Amino acid sequence: MMLSWRDLMQANESGLIHVDYAFGPRDSIEYLKLWLSTTRGHWHLACEYWMSPSTFHTGGIHFENGYKSVDLAHNLELIMQHQDAFSPPPNLGRNGLLQVQTPTEEESEAAAMALSEALDHVPSSLAETAMT
Question: Can you state the percent helix, strand and coil of the chain, rounding each to 5?
Fold first, then answer.
């Protein structure tokens, strides 16, 4: 998310992102939803990612409400399909929620470095696609 902040926030530089996620039966994240707010108290669904299709949704990433980011789509696909290469949040038996505020330049650089290091643990063809 931090690497796609400008894509998601569009003209607004500041705001908040909520990451709502739930675990599946194998302690891996089954779905996540990104909610954006640039005005206090007003949240908009930007995208959701489902590991498995169902009668209610297809698998993969889906952008909503006019939001889109090619970089986020590639990176999220890689992260979700290779969750074992990343540090997962603990499964506490309930949905999780992370709140992310506008990243500083240093935080964005640290996020880029962390993603790059994690990509060392995934097949090279997928990693190259994610970093472009």
Answer: 35, 30, 35
